[in-house]
Design goal:
Structural class: alpha+beta
Radius of gyration: 18 Å
Number of domains: 2
Number of helices: 7
Number of strands: 10
CATH topology of the largest domain: 60s Ribosomal Protein L30, Chain: A
Largest sheet: 6 strands, mixed
Strand order of the largest sheet: 2-1-3-4-5-6
Shape: globular
CATH class of the largest domain: Alpha Beta
Distance between the termini: 37 Å
CATH superfamily of the largest domain: D-3-phosphoglycerate dehydrogenase, domain 3
Order of helices and strands: HHEHHHEEEEEEHEEHE
């Protein structure tokens, strides 16, 4: 007889601990999926603290893998995420890991794409299904995905921020919050832009085609 967890019976939209262990976990996975742009060959989930101790019983493993498959937290297909990932040829594993001084419900998602590129995302489920992403590819930053969120990978050069702001203004997109993070002066950097308005694919393409912009990811999870 197959063993069923509470997650299998009730689903991810539960009141209480499951909102952190399932809905939040799924959102972390979905942010990682959106930043990767898909085409994922292998994903490794390093699960910290409570995530690592209880991920099987609480359905955290199914939920975060479901996010990698592009599912929302209320998608019933999450219950079958293991089988669906295998059918897609996606290699995945879960490892309990001490990630240091971070929230107890934290996961580091290590993605390897078919083109050989690798992406690392660190995120925490902070309660009620809400999350905070605190690291991308080793760069410390912060965003929640509660707003429409545009992440822009760029080279730290004068005028890049002004050009991006001008493009968004052309599309009548109001910026609610903007943060800029960089490794070192003149090197790789990220802009995290949270907006009050939806961002069209055309606007994202305009940003990507701007000089010194490496890529842009629309990662809103609402």
């Amino acid at each position: 007889m197959k063993d069923f967890s509470m997650f299998d019976i009730v689903g991810p939209n539960m009141i209480g601990p499951s909102s952190s262990h399932t809905a939040g976990a799924c959102r972390i996975g979905k942010v990682a999926y959106k930043i990767s742009g898909g085409d994922i060959k292998k994903v490794t989930f390093l699960l910290h603290g409570s995530f690592g101790k209880t991920y099987k019983g609480h359905g955290t493993d199914k939920a975060i893998l479901g996010g990698i498959l592009g599912f929302d937290p209320d998608d019933e297909k999450i219950k079958f995420s293991f089988d669906l990932a295998k059918k897609q040829g996606l290699d995945f594993e879960f490892i309990e890991e001490d990630l240091g001084d971070v929230h107890p419900n934290t996961a580091k998602v290590l993605i390897e794409k078919f083109d050989g590129s690798k992406i690392e995302i660190l995120g925490s489920s902070i309660g009620g299904g809400s999350i905070v992403v605190t690291e991308i590819n080793g760069l410390e930053l912060e965003f929640t995905g509660e707003y429409v969120t545009l992440i822009i990978a760029h080279t730290d050069r004068p005028g890049v921020i002004a050009k991006v702001s001008a493009i968004l203004a052309e599309y009548a997109i109001n910026i609610a919050f903007m943060r800029v993070y960089r490794h070192n002066r003149g090197q790789n950097a990220f802009m995290i832009i949270e907006t009050d308005d939806m961002i069209s694919d055309e606007a994202v393409k305009s940003v990507i085609n701007t000089e010194n912009i490496a890529n842009a990811y629309l990662v809103s999870i609402k």
